């Protein structure tokens, strides 16, 4: 195992100092933070400025009142755009053109409450008890699930491609022949997967921290559904499982060629599988309770993206998560064993592309 850790440390030290990795880390954090700020920027201010002449109406959360001396001043303030509307003596509203529909409803509600209070009546609010899923969070959960799909797909394909490129680079330059005099093939392969996986995990953590920090700064954390910590942990765990699966495939396919120019062609089956997994997960974010999403959340490697998306979008029974996790672990072990076998037999065969069927046989 010492050889594996030595290789992993070498991969981490080599990659973490490259400009490409540092730039990708910064870009990922900035993009996720920007997504958290975007609704606030596009949505504008939710508070309306209302000029008041005469007695001020009862306070309302969406209204900010400004005292005006008379109706003439109120008309000027509305036309100049200093206020969104003006309330005259509690029973007349001035607006520049057509009154905003939402503002009109709020002012109507405030006016009604003022009349009820003046009549000495007390309105007892309805008691609301939720007996099913809380629909308040459904839109937020769908948005989080969609974001998880994009982040997982980007990090999985990015990290797996680095594994494949590293294998081809070492094989093409024949450095692998020197390395294999000191470590075993499975140690070299395992160290590369672990080292680059650690860097991918760092990238994921940075993205999560940036997203949570930006959400806290914009006040969106108040809209987060219950169990947000479980959603974050689920994304991290499933990323590790998905990365182990796809990086093993990438290493196996990468060991078949000796030139970077041939890499995209040999990786086509893996990239197609990842694209299909991504599309399935994206569909699951929209229809998390559908039959397709439920079935494929148990099928490796689709479960590596579909299950964390379902966990974010809806409440998934713990037993389903555990069963999907066990099946994914079994698939990861099988792929790692097969990839180690292909890597051991193909990595020292330079020159023309090695056929997968020939190596397996």
Descriptive tags:
about 350 residues, mainly alpha, four-stranded mixed sheet, 14 helices, about 5% strand, elongated, ABC-type transporter activity, transmembrane helix, transmembrane, membrane
H/E element order? HHEEHEEHHHHHHHHHHH
Number of domains: 2
Strand tally, please?
4
Give the fraction of residues assigned to helices. 55-70%
Strand order, main sheet: write it out: 2-1-3-4
Give the overall form.
elongated
Please compute the radius of gyration using only Cα atoms.
29 Å
Membrane topology: Multi-pass membrane protein
Organism: Microbispora rosea
Domain ABC-2 type transporter transmembrane: 66-338
Protein name: ABC-2 type transport system permease protein
Notes on the protein architecture:
The longest helix has 35 residues, at 138-172. The chain contains 14 helices and 4 strands. The chain has 361 residues and is mainly alpha-helical. The protein has a 4-stranded mixed sheet, covered by helices on one side. One of its GO terms (cellular component) is membrane. Its main location: membrane. Residues 66-338 form the ABC-2 type transporter transmembrane domain. One of its GO terms (molecular function) is ABC-type transporter activity.
Short recap of the structure:
It is a multi-pass membrane protein. Keywords: Membrane, Transmembrane, Transmembrane helix. The protein has 14 helices and four strands.
Helix and strand layout, with pairings?
Blueprint: H1 2-16, H2 19-43, E1 48-53, E2 63-67, H3 71-80, E3 85-88, E4 92-94, H4 101-118, H5 138-172, H6 175-179, H7 185-218, H8 228-254, H9 263-266, H10 268-286, H11 291-296, H12 303-313, H13 318-346, H14 356-360
Helix pairs in contact: 1-7, 2-7, 5-7, 5-8, 5-10, 5-12, 7-8, 8-12, 8-13, 10-12, 12-13
């Amino acid at each position: 195992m010492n050889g594996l850790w030595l290789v992993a440390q070498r991969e981490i030290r080599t990659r973490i100092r490259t400009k490409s990795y540092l730039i990708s880390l910064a870009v990922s954090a900035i993009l996720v933070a920007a997504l958290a700020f975007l609704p606030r920027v596009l949505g504008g201010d939710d508070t309306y400025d209302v000029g008041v002449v005469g007695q001020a109406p009862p306070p309302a959360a969406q209204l900010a009142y400004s005292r005006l001396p008379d109706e003439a001043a109120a008309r000027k303030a509305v036309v100049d755009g200093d206020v969104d509307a003006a309330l005259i003596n509690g029973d007349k509203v001035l607006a520049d053109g057509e009154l905003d529909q939402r503002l009109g409803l709020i002012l109507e509600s405030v006016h009604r409450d003022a009349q009820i209070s003046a009549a000495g009546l007390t309105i007892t609010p309805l008691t609301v008890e939720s007996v099913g899923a809380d629909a308040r969070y459904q839109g937020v959960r769908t948005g989080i699930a969609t974001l998880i799909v994009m982040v997982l797909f980007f990090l999985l394909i990015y990290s797996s491609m680095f594994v494949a490129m590293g294998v081809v680079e070492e094989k093409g330059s024949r450095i692998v022949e020197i390395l294999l005099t000191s470590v075993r093939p499975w140690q070299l392969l395992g160290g590369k997967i672990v080292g680059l996986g650690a860097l991918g995990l760092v990238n994921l953590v940075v993205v999560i921290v940036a997203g949570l920090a930006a959400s806290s700064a914009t006040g969106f954390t108040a809209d987060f559904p219950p169990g947000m910590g479980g959603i974050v942990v689920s994304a991290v765990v499933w990323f590790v499982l998905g990365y182990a699966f796809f990086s093993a495939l990438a290493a196996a396919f990468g060991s078949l060629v000796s030139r970077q120019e041939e890499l995209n062609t040999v990786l086509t089956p893996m990239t197609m599988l990842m694209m299909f997994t991504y599309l399935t997960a994206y569909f699951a974010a929209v229809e998390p309770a559908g039959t397709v999403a439920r079935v494929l959340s148990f099928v490796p490697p689709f479960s590596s993206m579909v299950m964390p998306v379902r966990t974010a979008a809806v409440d998934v029974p713990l037993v389903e998560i555990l069963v999907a996790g066990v099946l994914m672990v079994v698939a990861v072990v099988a792929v790692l064993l097969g990839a180690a076998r292909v890597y051991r037999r193909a990595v020292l065969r330079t020159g023309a592309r090695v056929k997968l069927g020939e190596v397996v046989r």
